Amino acid sequence: MGPTGIGKTSLAFDLYDKLDVEIISVDSVQIYKNLDIGSGKPSKVLLKKYPHKLINKIEPYKSYSSALFREEALSEICTASEQNKLPLLVGGTMLYFQSLFLGLSNMPETDPTVRKKITQQAKLLGWEEMHRKLAGIDPESARRIHPNDTQRIQRALEVYESSLKTLTDWHKENKKEVNPKLSNFKIFQFAIQTEDRELHRKNVACRFQSMIEAGLVNEVESILKIKRMDTSVSSMRSVGYRQVCEFLEGNISYDEMIFKGVTATRQLAKRQMTWLRSWKNLIWLNESSQDMSQEVLDKVSNEL
Predict the structure, then answer these.
(1) Residues 192, 200: contact at Cβ < 8 Å?
(2) CA atoms within 13 A on the CB side of 145
(3) What does the alpha-carbon distance between residue 68 and residue 66 come to, in Å, rounded to a whole number?
(4) Contact 179/128 with Cβ under 8 angstroms?
């Protein structure tokens, strides 16, 4: 685990070279086909050398959820184990990790009509106003969800609009179910932390700029030409893609797109670190380490 742009994928490659592992992606954007540049997805050449499960899994116009991830990740973990491989989960989507290790509450399915309605409202009013709306409906969820976390704001509003019951009420009424299959595994949870926060902020800015230079705008234009695609679907609301869509729709300038893309990516990294700081049983790795993969191997061998 770790914030965006910290070196999780490189560490996974190093471990793949040293162990018989099955890499399982824990990334809510890399799950989509065609979302390559903006998701930081490894190249086709690297994916051939270092195969990943749960990458390029679904079409970009389809919805994907924590519940689906949990089901498919558990299946991949068990399959890898049956083949005498070590399941190696790599990514930065903390909600997916949470659903896998801590379980999920039963929630209503996403209603596409409701989602489209909320997306249109957000375009008119702005997400800051949508967060205020959520605070009036479900103050507890609004306190828990950052005003910049548009996907979770939308989900909380969708739950209420679809069921007339708040997300908080759903959580209280439904106990989380932890899959007993995981009890068969000795689980090691590692996270890479930033050595220099300001340097990481600069690296995040450079990373987004390099994505633009690599053709992110053209990538989004091509994706939007796919049948059943539009800017309201979940994949296009991901960090980076959302800002490019705003630019292509003429709502912001090119410079504003860069600024907003960098800002959103930095905010994502900050939220990821906030999640990780509250995570239990976490083993921290420093990004400046000479050989993180060896540190991982040493820790695992000492515990087993």
Answers:
(1) no
(2) 27
(3) 5
(4) no
Please list the alpha-helical segments (H only) found in 83-196: 94-102, 112-125, 127-137, 139-144, 150-163, 167-173
pLDDT digits (tens, 9 = 90+) for 115-126: 888 988 988 898
Q: Which of 283, 108, 270 is nearest to 187 (CA)?
A: 283
Give Cα 249 to chain centroid, integer Å. Answer: 25
The reported pTM is: 0.82
Q: Does residue 180 fall inside a structural domain? A: no
The CATH number covering residue 150 comes to 1.10.20.140
**Which of 46, 45, 64, 44 lies closest to 54, judged by CA?**
64
> Looking at the structure, do residues 94 and 211 belong to the same domain, yes or no?
yes
Residue type at 116 in one-letter notation: K
262 shares a domain with 130: no
What is the signed CA dihedral for 165, 168, 171, 174, rounded to 10 degrees? Answer: -40
The token pair at 128 is: 């800051």
Q: Does 192 map to a domain?
A: yes
Q: Give residue-wise pLDDT tens across range 156-214.
A: 998 899 888 898 888 777 656 667 778 889 999 999 998 888 999 999 999 999 999 99
- Residues 195 and 296 occupy one common structural domain: yes
d(CA 277, CA 191): 10
Answer whether residue 1 is part of any domain.
no
Residues 152 and 29 in one domain: no
Q: What are phi and psi of 2, to 5 degrees?
A: 155, 165
Full domain range(s) for residue 122: 112-173
Number of folded domains in the chain? 2
pLDDT along the chain (304 residues), means of 10: 95 96 97 97 97 97 90 95 96 93 76 84 89 93 87 89 88 69 90 91 94 98 94 91 96 96 93 91 91 94 81
Round to the nearest angstrom and report the end-to-end CA distance of the chain: 21
Per the domain annotation, does 52 fall within a domain? yes
Question: Are residues 85 and 155 located together in one domain of the fold?
Answer: no
